[in-house]
Amino acid sequence: MEKFEVNILGCGSALPTTRHFSSSQVVNIREKLFMIDCGEGAQLQLRRSKLKFTRLNHIFISHLHGDHCFGLMGLISTFGLLGRTAKLHIYAHEQLEKLLRPQLDFFCKGMTYEVEFHSIDPTQATVIYEDRSVTVSTIPLKHRIPSCGFLFQEKKTPNHIIRDMIDFYQIPVYELNRIKNGEDYITPDGTVIPNQRLTTPSAEPRSYAYCSDTIHLPGIIPQIKGTDLLFHEATFMHEDVVRAQETFHTTAQQAAETARDANVKQLVIGHFSARYEDETLLLKESQAIFANTLLAKENLKITL
C-alpha cells in the first residue's frame, strides 16, 4: 500500500508554552509532502521529523491567526537559503498574500524560486487541489475570523492484474489498462472472461480531515463522514464549555461527539489550551465518548 501519513509538528494553541509548538502538520502522500498551517517553529519541527524540505511544495493555511501562519516567512526564507528552485504553492484566504508580499519583497530579494498564492474561500466546500493521487477540499468552519479545515481524499487506484491469468488467456498488452479499470476481456472467439478472474481489487482509498479552529459545528459531519482519520481541535475540557463558546473553540467532549456522529475510524485531538498541564484529562474526556482517540504530540506520525 502506498504511503499516507500524518506528521504532527505542533499541536498547541495561541499562547506559547514549553510543552508544545504552534499548529502545523505535514501530510505525506506517496512521498509528496503537504503542509497544513505553519505556526512558529514549523521548520525546526520539519527537521526533527526528518521530513525532506525538497518534497514540500504545497502549504494550506486554515485561517490568519498567528499561531497558524507566523512560521511562513521563516520557512520561505530558509527555502531560499537552501537554493530551492521549485515553485511553492500557498493556499489561503486572499488577505495572506497582501500581508506577505511586502515582507517577501523586503526580506527575500533575489530569491531563487517563486511563491504562488492561491486564494481560497473558507465559506465554501470546494476542491482546491488535485493531482493523480489525491484531492484536497476545504471544510467550512466557524471561528472568530474566516476559517476552514481541509479534507484529503486519496483517489482509487486501478485493480491489480493477476499475471498468471493474463498469460493463460494470452491477453495482449494493449488490453491491460482496460482490464485494470474493471472491464471484462473478450477473447477472439467471443468468450467473455470476467474481470474478477483477471484482477484483484485495489486497496480502498483513504481520507484525512483536519478541523481547527472552530466552534462545535455538527454541520461538517456530512462532509467528513467515514474518514479514516479526523484531527479535531480540543482546546478546552467540557467544564470550560462557556469559554470555548466565547472564543469559538471546541471541547474534547464535543470533538469526540463529532467523530462518533461522523463514524470516522480514528480521532486525534490537539490545539490544546495552555491552561491544562495534564492533557490526558482531555484524552479521557474524549475517549469516554469515542474510544479510538489519540492525543496529538510533537513529532507523532500516524499511518493510515
Give a description of the structure.
There is one protein chain. The chain has 304 residues and is an alpha/beta fold. The protein is built from eleven helices and 18 strands. It has a seven-stranded mixed sheet. Strands 7-8-9-14-15-16-17 form a seven-stranded mixed sheet, with helices on one face. A two-stranded antiparallel ribbon has the order 10-13. Helix 11 links the parallel strand 16 and strand 17. Helix 10 packs parallel to helix 11. It is globular, with a radius of gyration of 22 Å. The termini are close together. The model has no long low-confidence stretch (mean pLDDT 95).
Helix content: 25-40%
What is the N-to-C order of secondary-structure elements (H for helix, E for strand)? Answer: EEEHEHHEHEEEEEHHEEHEEHEHHEHEE
Strand order of the largest sheet: 6-5-4-3-2-1-18
Q: Which structural class matches the secondary elements? A: alpha/beta
Structure at a glance:
This protein is an alpha/beta fold. Helix content is 26%, strand content 27%. It is globular and about 75 Å long.
Relevant terms:
seven-stranded mixed beta sheet, globular, alpha/beta, 304 residues
